[in-house]
From TrEMBL:
Chain spans, region Disordered: 1-23
BP-aspect Gene Ontology terms: ubiquitin-dependent protein catabolic process
Name recorded for this polypeptide: Ubiquitin-like domain-containing protein
Residue ranges constituting the Ubiquitin-like domain according to the UniProt record: 25-84
GO molecular function, one term: polyubiquitin modification-dependent protein binding
SMART domains in UniProt: UBQ
CDD domains: Ubl_Dsk2p_like
A GO cellular-component term linked to this record: cytosol
SUPFAM superfamilies in the cross-refs: Ubiquitin-like
Length: 87
C-alpha cells in the first residue's frame, strides 16, 4: 500500500560479526520506499531508541516511523529482545 502518512519499515535480524553473549545484532531495514540498509544494535535497546538510529539512515523522523517485525508493529517502550529477536 502507498505510504503518504508515516514511514513504515520492516526489519530482519542476523547475528553481528563477532557476536555471542553481547546481544549485538545487525538489523536489515527495508523502508516503505524500498531503500535498504543495515544498523548494528543490542537486543536490550528499546524500540524507541532503535527508531532514533534508523532515523539517521533514512528521511523519516523517529516519531513518524512504524516498525514491523514478523507481522507485528513494534511498541516504543518495549525492548527488541521482547519480540523474540534472539537466535
Amino acid at each position: 500500500m502507498g505510504g503518504d502518512g508515516g514511514g513504515k519499515a520492516e526489519a530482519s535480524e542476523s547475528e553481528a560479526a563477532g557476536g555471542g553473549g553481547g546481544g549485538g545484532v545487525n538489523v536489515n531495514v527495508r523502508c516503505s520506499n524500498n531503500t535498504k540498509f543495515s544498523v548494528q544494535v543490542t537486543l536490550d535497546s528499546t524500540v524507541g531508541s532503535f527508531k532514533s538510529i534508523v532515523a539517521r539512515s533514512c528521511d523519516i523522523p523517529a516519531e513518524q516511523q512504524r516498525l514491523i517485525y514478523k507481522g507485528r508493529i513494534l511498541k516504543d517502550d518495549q525492548t527488541l529482545e521482547s519480540y523474540g529477536n534472539s537466535c
